[in-house]
Specification:
The chain is of the alpha+beta class and 129 residues long. Helix content is 30%, strand content 26%. The protein has three helices and seven strands. The protein has helices at residues 21-37, 67-77, 97-107, and strands at residues 42-47, 52-56, 58-59, 64-65, 83-89, 112-116, 122-127. The strands form two sheets. Strands 2-1-5-6-7 form a five-stranded mixed sheet. A two-stranded antiparallel sheet has the order 3-4. It is globular and about 30 Å long.
Length: 129
């Protein structure tokens, strides 16, 4: 299935928003986290062993984390050594620089980050770094 993509921006490219099955899975998981928890964003990451970590936005008085930062933290806390890919479902137009940095910290520069809307359609592909 081909999806339309936005104009290129510094953190996204119109290339390759068509996903393979493993990348589609993390988009679906991110979408379900957002819907299930009633939060602004849902995210999922896949580590080097294929395990997935799913999270929503954390918004406490003493702690604020985006969904993607939370998913990365969950991966780290579970012993992941690297990331293969990440996905975030949000109404945002681009992936936040802080989210890309968190993915890059664990996955390294070039780790793909897919940005999808609430309908699950991927709107952009960014790279961590």
């Amino acid at each position: 299935m081909t999806h339309s993509t936005p104009e290129s921006t510094p953190d996204s490219t119109p290339e390759s928003t068509e996903l393979g099955p493993e990348d589609r899975k993390i988009v679906t998981l991110a979408r379900s986290a957002r819907a299930r928890n009633g939060v602004a964003e849902g995210a999922a990451v896949r580590d080097e062993t294929g395990r997935t970590y799913v999270a929503g936005t954390v918004s406490l008085n003493s702690l604020k984390l985006s969904a993607l930062q939370t998913a990365v933290a969950m991966a780290v806390a579970s012993g992941a050594e690297s990331l293969e890919a990440a996905a975030v479902v949000s109404t945002a137009e681009t992936v936040a620089a802080s989210d890309l940095a968190a993915v890059g910290d664990l996955g390294g520069a070039g780790t793909p980050v897919f940005l999808a809307g609430a309908d699950g359609a991927v709107r952009a592909r960014a790279t961590a770094g």
